[in-house]
Write a structure and sequence with these properties.
This protein is an alpha+beta fold and 634 residues long. It contains 10 helices and 23 strands. Helix 8 packs across helix 9. The longest helix has 20 residues.
Length: 634
């Protein structure tokens, strides 16, 4: 049995509230056949009470549109802030006592959880800002004027108004071309957006009260509402002291569910830049961070609540910049300058990390070139050297943070102005150039190091080989880079021919800490595409009283891709190719729509895979045929 409620309330034009809740219940029945009046009455009673609640959830959302666009100085900004709260209560189900055989409430009690989300959105229209400067406004007005097409008849009206309009046009057209170009360069940033959100939540098992209204048990054991108003509205204050004091928690010593707290941050930014007409650059940056704290919280045999086995884990990703090393080539031994820099930078990273740790004791260095506590295999040393080497920069303090705060820019560039050149207008309908770059540094999973002991905010305890134990233990980190495309051309000719050519590159770098190994996977792909439409082709088989004529669409796509995987091992000092292949793909198709609902398609597809290593075998696949599609839906 389910119940759902909802309420939307526009408190003002700028403030909007909404509330939604849902509850589900179970109609319990006596065990066995229902053949007595008492058993039938118990079912009726359960129905009248809407069953036994086993799940309840509600969400609150409040959105405030910040009136910046109402203020003349900031009318180029539109922003809003949203607060969201989520509360959930889940029953642990019924429990059969093994001694008496009776069914009753589970001693593990119930689980409550809540979350709180704060989100800020901002959009920036820089053209509105530029128009506040009279000179820049004139340049924008000239750019928005439609081109004149010969002489036009003067409309009937006041001669004074015509004179004013003429003078205004002369004033705009009289802008010096150099000053106009400088003004357009100043105004190249067109639009922008920024979104930041933070979500916090907690989950508490062993909670005995059950909700009656709005998520609250309003008079549990005569001690007021349980949990409390703040918790059901998303408050992240620790509720456990109050829960213990007011006896909301179960006393079962075998409670095995985690008490957990979650924290998540997301940042996304975007800018649109147009330095010259038809040349657009979209710049993006993003960062994501998630952290989960878990522990057992339960009573002991004396009824005293304690914390057991606390731990933290999470993941992280941020837009990064590794363009400087994207085109470095391997030598005959499959090594390259990126790898040799990584090995060499470990010594510099060791000195930087030791310099900021007050627990470092100078004069006790045992490994040549490294500070004690930060040897060549220490994880923070490896991370700093890895990020520095594959960013193409010397180690510095900016690479010491394993969770960088400021994302680096990625971009996508498009230019469609070539088809407007006079000598190309007669042959090309459109000509688009494109380029895209994206690089992401990510920590797939990290967890709290149980042996970590801080002093003055830095690592103090050391492991068995004398290295400082960091706060978080990384299994591996990854840099994923795509140039998709490195260069792309897309042309549509006047004769309906379409041609496309792209070069794509990608690279994935994975640093494994257990054996100090970097796995580098590289790929280069060439794509060629053709399309042509033959108009009004007569279908050879007559369907109906008149011959069928329709457009025949032909398409061909060819791609050639080389993949290489190289294992770079620091301890062994080797660079070894472990996998790789050359893949060739060809696709040809012809589409002929007989009607809006009936389509015939002939196709041919070929794929071949030739491995670079002897442990794999070459393969090829061919797929060809004829497909007929008939659509019944309107």
């Amino acid at each position: 049995m389910s119940r759902t409620y909802g309420l939307n309330w526009d408190l003002t034009k700028s403030i909007k509230l909404d509330f939604n809740s849902s509850a589900s219940a179970v109609i319990d029945e006596p065990v066995g056949r229902i053949d007595t009046k008492e058993e039938r009455d118990s079912i009726k009673t359960n129905l009248l009470h809407f069953g036994r609640l086993n799940n309840y959830r509600h969400t609150w959302n409040a959105t405030y549109n910040i009136p910046l666009n109402k203020i003349p100085l900031t009318d180029w900004i539109s922003a809003n802030v949203r607060y969201g709260a989520d509360f959930g209560w889940t029953s642990s189900g019924l429990y059969r006592d093994t001694a008496s055989g009776k069914i009753g409430l589970n001693p593990f009690a119930n689980t409550i959880q809540n979350s709180q989300t704060i989100q800020l959105n901002g959009n920036f229209t820089f053209t509105t800002l530029y128009n506040k400067v009279p000179f820049l406004k004139k340049i924008n007005q000239q750019g928005q004027r439609p081109p004149s097409k010969g002489n036009t008849l003067k409309p009937k009206g006041s001669s004074d108004s015509l004179k004013v309009g003429k003078n205004a046009g002369d004033e705009i057209s009289s802008i010096n071309p150099v000053l106009k170009g400088l003004g357009n360069l100043i105004m190249m940033v067109k639009t922008g957006s920024l979104t930041y959100s933070q979500t916090n939540g907690m989950s508490l098992p062993g909670f005995r009260p059950k909700p009656e209204f709005m998520g609250q048990d309003w008079s549990y054991q005569g001690q007021g509402p349980a949990p409390n108003l703040g918790f059901v509205l998303g408050s992240q204050n620790d509720i456990r002291p109050e829960a213990v004091k007011k006896q909301w928690m179960t006393l079962d010593t075998s409670l095995s569910s985690f008490y957990s707290r979650n924290h998540q941050e997301n940042l996304n930014g975007r800018l649109t830049v147009e330095p010259i007409k038809s040349f657009k650059i979209e710049i993006s940056a993003n960062r994501s961070y998630t952290l989960t704290h878990s522990e057992f919280f339960r009573a002991n045999a004396n009824g005293v609540y304690n914390t057991y086995s606390p731990t933290e884990s999470g993941n992280f990703s941020i837009s990064y910049f590794t363009w400087n090393t994207a085109f470095v080539k391997d030598d005959k031994t499959y090594s390259n300058t990126n790898w040799t820099n990584f090995l060499a930078y470990r010594s510099e990273a060791s000195a930087l990390l030791a310099g900021r740790n007050p627990n470092y004791v100078s004069g006790n260095d045992t490994v040549v070139g490294y500070k004690n506590g930060y040897g060549p295999s220490q994880s923070e040393v490896l991370t700093t050297a890895f990020l520095s080497a594959y960013s193409g920069k010397q180690p510095s303090n900016s690479f010491l943070d394993r969770f960088p705060q400021i994302p680096k820019p990625n971009w996508r560039i498009t230019y469609d102005g070539l088809s407007k050149l006079p000598f190309l207008q007669n042959v090309l309908q459109s000509f688009n150039l494109s380029h895209g770059y994206r690089s992401i540094y990510s920590v797939n999973t990290f967890s709290q190091n149980l042996l970590y002991l801080p002093n003055d905010g830095y690592s103090f305890r050391r492991d068995t080989i004398g290295n400082f134990i960091p706060h978080y233990d990384f299994q591996q980190i990854t840099i994923s880079e795509q140039l998709s495309p490195l260069i792309g051309l897309d042309m549509t000719w006047k004769n309906s021919l379409q041609t496309r050519f792209e070069i794509r590159r990608d690279r994935t770098l994975t640093l494994a800490y257990s054996n100090i190994q970097v796995t580098e996977v590289r790929g280069v792909e060439y794509v060629i595409g053709f399309g042509y439409k033959i108009k009004k082709v007569r279908f050879p088989i007559r369907i109906g009283p008149k011959p069928t004529r329709s457009d025949l669409s032909l398409r061909a796509d060819i791609n050639l891709r080389n993949n290489t995987t190289i294992l770079r091992k620091a301890i062994e000092g080797t660079n070894q190719p472990s996998a790789g292949s050359r893949t060739l793909g060809m696709k040809f198709s012809a589409d002929y729509p007989i009607s809006d609902r009936f389509n015939i398609r002939a196709f041919y597809e070929f794929n071949s895979n030739n491995p670079f290593v002897s442990s794999s075998y070459p393969t090829s696949n061919t797929n060809a045929g004829l497909s007929v599609r008939f659509t019944l839906a309107q």
